[in-house]
């Protein structure tokens, strides 16, 4: 039987709630990958663009964003473009696309797979739900089936020898492989969470089931404030951090993700003790980088009047 987790300290709860409440989301949205799907008011476009954006969201936003902008400019109306996509006719539109592991044929394969998924299910949400027989269960198996819908699509028009490119496989990591699957969790956060900056388009899933998208920034912050001690960034770390956050807000544990990630990404946290950068930080009370300073501060704090003196050695 699993040992019950200790309840979060009031200081951790209060610090995180304050961070979530006071964070300036508007100031950071333009530097976040969410800005790409946010441009599209039609939910059908938004869903397709969100999945493509999240799939490419490895590395810096400004770098993959440049490549993604070129793809979106070709699509114009992404949902209709994908619905009518013909790799022989339209594939060449992506000939200038290159981003790290990915090449034009990976984007063409994405369009073919998304076209067939949408033709079969109508929306990406319905595709997800079709592979989610336990609406209160863990998200992993359903997310695995969702990723497989793209990996097991008939892509012979793009990959005639039947072998997927490494770049295409990279777009859809499988939860069953044990990695953190940050990009898939990010996509779900955008789709499922009901509060800004997220879209809340997928109403058939509860935000309580989401796992936090752990990237290097969230990993650093999570260690700093004691949400995990794991060394490897993997699925179990995502589960562990989320479980700690769920002890604070079981209905919406990943609501802290955006603020935690951007605090570190923006340089408002250097992941080390810095008297200037840390001075305004509301997490200082729970930050491991200040633990020694807190203890020293407590030891040297003036005693209240009337308090007994500490015993002297040998006294
Ligand atoms: S106290 Fe400093 S190191 Fe700790 S979380 Fe805040 S900014 Fe980061």
Give the SSE map.
Layout: H1 10-22, H2 25-29, H3 35-38, H4 43-56, H5 61-75, H6 78-83, H7 87-90, H8 104-121, H9 124-130, H10 139-151, H11 166-171, H12 182-192, H13 216-224, H14 235-246, H15 257-265, H16 291-300
Helix pairs in contact: 4-5, 4-12, 8-9, 13-15
This protein binds iron/sulfur cluster.
Iron/sulfur cluster binds at residues 224, 269, 271, 277-278, 281, 283-284, 287, 289-290.
Q: Which properties best describe this structure?
A:
mainly alpha, 16 helices, disordered C terminus, binds iron/sulfur cluster
* Poorly predicted parts: 301-315
What overall form do the CA principal axes indicate? elongated
Please work out how many helical segments DSSP would assign.
Answer: 16
**Mean pLDDT over the residues:** 93
**What's the number of extended β-strand segments?**
0
| Count of the domains | 2
Residue share in β-strands: under 5%
**Largest sheet report:** none
Rounded to an integer in angstroms, the radius of gyration calculated over CA atoms is 23 Å
The SSE string, one letter per element, is: HHHHHHHHHHHHHHHH
Q: Can you walk me through this structure?
A:
The structure is a single chain. It contains 16 helices and no strands. It is mainly α. The protein has two domains: 1-31 and 211-293, Orthogonal Bundle (Endonuclease Iii, domain 2), CATH 1.10.1670; 32-206, no CATH class. It is elongated and about 70 Å long. It starts with 9 loop residues before the first helix and ends in a 15-residue tail after the last helix. Mean pLDDT is 93; it is low at 301-315.
């Amino acid at each position: 039987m699993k040992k019950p987790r200790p309840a979060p300290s009031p200081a951790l709860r209060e610090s995180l709630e304050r961070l979530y409440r006071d964070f300036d989301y508007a100031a950071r949205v333009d530097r976040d990958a969410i800005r790409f799907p946010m441009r599209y008011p039609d939910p059908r476009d938004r869903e397709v663009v969100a999945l493509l954006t999240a799939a490419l969201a490895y590395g810096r936003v400004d770098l993959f964003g440049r490549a993604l902008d070129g793809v979106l400019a070709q699509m114009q109306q992404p949902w209709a473009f994908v619905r009518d996509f013909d790799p022989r006719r339209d594939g060449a539109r992506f000939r200038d696309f290159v981003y790290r592991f990915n090449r034009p044929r990976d984007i063409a394969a994405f369009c073919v797979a998304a076209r067939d998924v949408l033709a079969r299910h109508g929306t990406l949400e319905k595709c997800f739900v079709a592979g989610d027989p336990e609406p209160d269960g863990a998200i992993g198996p359903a997310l695995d089936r969702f990723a497989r819908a793209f990996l097991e699509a008939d892509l012979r028009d793009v990959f005639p020898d039947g072998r997927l490119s490494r770049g295409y496989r990279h777009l859809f990591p499988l939860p069953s492989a044990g990695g953190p699957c940050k990009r898939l969790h990010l996509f779900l956060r955008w789709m499922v969470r009901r509060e800004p900056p997220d879209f809340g388009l997928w109403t058939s899933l509860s935000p309580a089931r989401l796992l936090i998208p752990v990237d290097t920034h969230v990993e650093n912050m999570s260690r700093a404030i004691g949400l995990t001690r794991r060394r490897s960034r993997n699925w179990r770390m995502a589960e562990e951090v989320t479980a700690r956050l769920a002890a604070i807000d079981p209905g919406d544990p990943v609501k802290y993700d955006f603020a935690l990630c951007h605090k570190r990404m923006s340089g408002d946290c250097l992941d080390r003790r810095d008297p200037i950068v840390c001075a305004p930080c509301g997490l200082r009370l729970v930050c491991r980088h200040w633990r020694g300073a807190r203890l020293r501060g407590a030891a040297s704090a003036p005693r209240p009047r009337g308090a007994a003196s500490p015993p002297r050695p040998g006294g």
